[in-house]
């Protein structure tokens, strides 16, 4: 079938259109390939420039030559008119142009730009801090100071990159164009990378120049420096130089002597701690200064040593070491370490103290509060008596704990008081045994005093001896379930009295005997007590001039002992003199007369307790402070005053002093929670006739009141 002319024309037209499209596609692909080729060539040129500049700066030994060559390569590539490096000077005040390359027809400006104040150039450095780089074709958009400087030089466009090391700017690299430069992003990236290379090289050269300057002066100063200095060959370790202090300590240095022979006599090879491997890397590049410490067994001295690799006068690598004597510092450090350990131990003990006290205080308080509540709820006489016994027993536990805490605080403050008086030891020991016979709960345990102990009367602090013996007895009762507990004392040949409490209890394991007198140590964590008693006893015995110890066999029993000088010259500066006490003044009163007692007490609960104990036999009058006490005294003339020492406004000491100034002889009894010997002394000096401490014992309160109100 033949095609018509119209059909043939249509086909030809389609073929022509298809051919045209193919030609357009080929042309577009060619343009793309040309662009890719151009970009590739530009990238290759940039890489070639980068590598060449890097090689120049790394391999050229002369610094000015290297910088001029590098700037010329960069300048020709970028077409810049003026390319320059600027650096801060060592004086910290000025900066200036250090190297410059100018294109043909551009006059150099380096000669009058070598030194300017950093303050004047502050706009440059501010821009670096804000933008990191400056790249603009409009110089009038910059700070006026900069714009004017560039305008004089005919600059139309500028690019400035900071020179920095470890984030610190020390200069910049500037590209000045005297024509309207249009910036290419990749060229800016390349210039930024080149500025980083220049930064590194410049900083390295600054260090090398500084070292060269140091080497020129080193020879003159080393021999006079107040430290041991020596220099040895890096490879052979032969000593090249030793200063005067070094020679005075190690002796004259023989020719070609090895450094280790001079430093540590007797060594046959390099020192184990030789710093050489740490001073140069595998490419023999400096790694910095190595600091270390060493002890010289010959001189018995400690040194801190700075080791570094240097270029010696003849150009070879050498090791220089500067050793400073730190023996005194080492001794101080040891003392500081020991002090730190003591402080940490004190902190640990404080934490243990708080934990123990929390438990030990709450335990008797729990019983006191609980059984006190039950006392109010029960009418059975037998139960009430049982509850009262338990409350009293826990009262004693709490009071003993508080006494221990007070003793610990006095031991820490160094204010342990000793009140010396004549003591009959035979009678004292019998009293201790009698006291514990009432506290003993186990009938299978016999308490006894060794009657063979000699009859001795001596000057001593009776209360402190009783305190130590009571602690020994209390511990013996805790850990003895059958057998006996014996109290005894003997006079030894060395003039010391030796007191012993021997029991047949379970004994003490050998590994715990050395710790038994430490604070908070308890052989049985379930036994009552804070673990303070034996530690307090040790301090008291040592204060009295004796020693303390224990002999024990596990399962066989223990013997706690302490010694006391037979003739003691220890006197307390706070001893309470018995003469301070005044005898009660006899009075003639009616047969049914109830004495009037003025109670100066600001705490309601304390007054209510006194009222409950005394109201049956006495009339009571209350004052809430010292001023009210004086008013009531003048109005009522009481037979006795119970005076609290701490009250709001006028306290007990001041009130007593004022009453005594009136000439009154009415007995005044101090009733206070202040329990130290100096508190008692202050009360007597103010005019008190007697002294009672809180918490008050009901029988003791009645006895004292009866004593001073006796008819």
TrEMBL record:
Question: What single Pfam family name could you report for this chain, choosing any that match?
Answer: HATPase_c
State the UniProt keywords alphabetically: Coiled coil, Kinase, Phosphoprotein, Transferase
Enzyme Commission identifier(s): 2.7.13.3
Q: Which domain of life does the UniProt lineage start with?
A: Bacteria
GO MF, one term, reads: phosphorelay sensor kinase activity
Residue list for modification 4-aspartylphosphate: 644
Which residues are in coiled coils?
19-46
Limits of the Response regulatory domain:
596-709
Q: What InterPro entries does the record point to?
A: CheY-like_superfamily, GAF, GAF-like_dom_sf, HATPase_C_sf, HATPase_dom, His_kinase_dom, HisK_dim/P_dom, HisK_dim/P_sf
Reactions catalysed according to its record? ATP + protein L-histidine = ADP + protein N-phospho-L-histidine
Q: Which residues form the Histidine kinase domain?
A: 356-568
Which PROSITE patterns does the entry link to? HIS_KIN, RESPONSE_REGULATORY
Please report the name of this protein according to its UniProt entry. histidine kinase
